[in-house]
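#struct-help
A.M.: can someone run this one for me? Single chain, 484 residues.
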Amino acid sequence: MKYFFVCLACFISCNLLAHVSDSLYKEKYRPQYHFTPKHRWIGDPCGLIKHSGKYLAYSWGAAVSDDLVYWNELNDHAIKQVPEGISTFTGSVVIDKNNTAGWGNNVPIAVFTSFDEASKKQSQSIAFSHDGGMTYMFYDRNPVLDIWSTEFRDPTVIWDEGSKRWIMLVAKALEKKVAFYSSTDMKHWTWLSDFGPLGDSEKSWECPDMFQLPLDNLPAGKKWVLVVSVNWMREQYFIGEFDGVKFIPDNTGDYPLYIDKGLDYYASRVFRDYDDSSAPVYTIGWLNTWDYAETAPTTWGKGIWSVPREYRLRNTPEGLRLIQKPFDGLSKLRGARHTFKRKIKAGLTEIPFVKEMNNVYELDVTFSNMGNKPVGIFLCEGENKKAVLSYDPQSQYITLDRTNVSQTAIPKFERMSSCKVPAVNGRIRFHCYVDKSSVEIFVNDGEATLSFLTFPSDNQTGCSVFSLGMANVDLTAWKLKSIW
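D.P.: on it. Structure tokens below:
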């Protein structure tokens, strides 16, 4: 009898494990081509680097990729021997090529905010890795930078070749400033300057990042871009120069300029490429907003990272602007190509083949010959619900309406956003990435982006285009493969 119960227990256990294995990464609202961890919270992307042919990303669990498309989760806590009562907050990773910190050549070093749970103090700490960035050992003399503040966080560290030293950017959150510090050994830091407030300075500044970009379609040269997350819900950016001590913005009357014009994009960082300094600059952000980040109706965990995007700078009629384009490598996920190309009359036209893609697809739609009548797209359509993306040729405004898309009631979720984007030669293009519970839209080759969460029902997979007059529609859609 004992043998029978042992066998029964083994049978039940094996079947439960098989069930868990079968359902993992297939949970309701689980993205199929965005990175999410197995079962945990994921917040700000941290420590984004490329080194020895691998992309690494943290939060502070570690993930690795060969191609920025397929990811392998390495662990859920990469920083080891963190003292009791200390939490690891947002930060960055560098490769110490020349052993400036004393832990060896080409050693990955994490720089992050240590949060003291008793005092609520935020200071900056470091950790080093001797296994290629899979895990890090907490430095026993942390913190390395402490101004005794509860609002001092999210360091980004870069190497300044001109002065041969490390530069750290840290947010003085409620002062709406980015503080710059320098160091030659990563362990001792000297204050250089503060930048801000400027632009959007209503509530707080967080997660600063700074990088150089070449000028798209212009003579050779580069400009510095400084990105800051603001008000716990969006990001602004500044274009200018960095002289090794301070950031000097161009055209201060232009600001604020926003990274994403949608509802859910925050805390982005760029990948630092230690293999090729001339490589394109790629970035990912957190598809979320603090108002409802912890109340999302997901069972596998909380939080999503965006698809990778390529940054460029483009000279526009309004001046020099940041351009974002979806990473070219995503095209390897495409299935069969479906097209719809015709003139539509006033009203709604269903795109039936999109419905069968179950909200896991790429959609490229161009409207032309619109006259002065609004056009647009219904996404996640069904059960009298939908997300509405519309364009008014007269005002040149795009409007995103998410007030009636979620299957469940989420506090503060029913919102709208808008932005002005002129048509190009009478055309407006929406390049959309829909993935179960999120949508990312790139307008007119990256001139504007709109990212937002959706949480539709299983029956809300429809898609339609509409016009209030006559318009030409050129639409292509691909079902995208899962990365799991």
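A.M.: thanks! Residues 2-23 form the longest helix (22 residues).
D.P.: also worth noting: Residues 333-480 form a domain with the Jelly Rolls fold (CATH 2.60.120.560).
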